[in-house]
Write a structure and sequence with these properties.
CATH class of the largest domain: Alpha Beta
Strand content: 15-25%
Radius of gyration: 24 Å
Distance between the termini: 52 Å
Structural class: alpha/beta
Shape: elongated
Number of helices: 10
Number of strands: 11
Helix content: 40-55%
Number of domains: 2
């Protein structure tokens, strides 16, 4: 198969439209359509269902798309490795991590990293779902769980500790709880239970209260940890947060300090193919230095 036609097919499949694919490829809509028609003719198979709202891959098209996507990702990875200068790290570095860690801790330190390595451009992808590193959805990940993929290299970064926090204005208004059962009379903020958790034991505080009252419901649930942090900071209620998010904020008070809280392990993860990438090496070493200065 002609790689130029496969490349066009890959972009069309991603965009779902000849027009949008043409814009991405700097080609006319008719030129894109001809390339796809030629590819279909050579394979003697339809690759798309065409309808008024756009294009949908056929079963055969789905199979070809997965292969083309894999080849495209591998080529992009190889190109990055071949063109990167080990003496002066440069190029795009795509980093994915959870919303809480990325929004609160990591962004605070990115300016210093960019000052040290001005030729590295960083794309920070914060999401509470794991992107596929093997498919080059990102170059490196900071994950709050042990990676399961065998082809990924992992380095332990830190052990995170949880604690229970409230804003002083909330405590002035509603009083300070002295034990877990006191939370039955307070407003508790937690992560949404019907959503995938970014890491295990995130809703442990609600679980502790339900040991006393099984029907207990938090007053407010939010679908990411940064939102939970901001709600507690705004004196909406009491909640559990990682120490790195809350301890540096003077407006938050740690309460119920005798309650035993879970821990979370964080890992720096990247594909084995990028083990010699200078961008990844310097970013990993920078993180380890900054983490050593932080109370987790």
């Amino acid at each position: 198969m002609d790689w130029d036609k496969l490349r066009v097919f890959h972009v069309v499949a991603e965009s779902g439209s000849f027009t949008r694919a043409g814009e991405a490829l700097n080609l006319s809509q008719s030129a894109v359509s001809r390339q796809i028609r030629s590819l279909e003719d050579s394979l003697r198979l339809p690759l798309f269902h065409r309808h008024a709202r756009g294009l949908i891959l056929t079963e055969q098209g789905e199979l070809l798309y997965r292969t083309a996507h894999d080849v495209s990702a591998k080529l992009a990875m190889t190109e990055a490795i071949l063109t990167e200068s080990k003496e002066r790290p440069k190029g795009l570095l795509r980093v994915t991590t959870t919303v809480g860690f990325g929004s609160i801790w990591l962004t605070r330190h990115m300016g210093e990293f960019m000052d040290l390595y001005p030729e590295i451009t960083v794309s920070l992808l914060v999401a509470d779902v794991d992107l596929d590193l093997s498919m080059r959805e990102a170059d490196v990940a900071i994950r709050i769980s042990v990676p399961q993929q065998a082809d990924l290299i992992q380095r332990h970064l830190f052990t995170g500790h949880f604690a229970i926090y409230a804003a002083p204005t909330y405590l002035n208004r509603f009083g300070t709880p002295n034990k877990i059962e006191d939370l039955l009379e307070h407003r508790v903020v937690s992560f949404g239970e019907d959503l995938p958790l970014p890491f295990a034991d995130l809703n442990w505080l609600v679980g502790e209260v339900r040991k006393i009252e099984p029907e207990f419901q938090p007053a407010l649930t939010i679908n990411n940890l940064y939102g939970t942090f901001r709600a507690i900071e705004a004196a909406i209620g009491i909640g559990a947060l990682p120490a790195f998010m809350a301890d540096e904020r003077a407006q938050l008070v740690r309460i119920l300090t005798k309650v035993e809280a879970p821990k979370a392990e964080a890992y720096f993860v990247y594909p084995a193919e990028l083990r010699d990438s200078a961008r990844i090496v310097v970013f990993r070493d920078f993180l380890l230095r900054k983490i050593a200065e932080t109370r987790f």
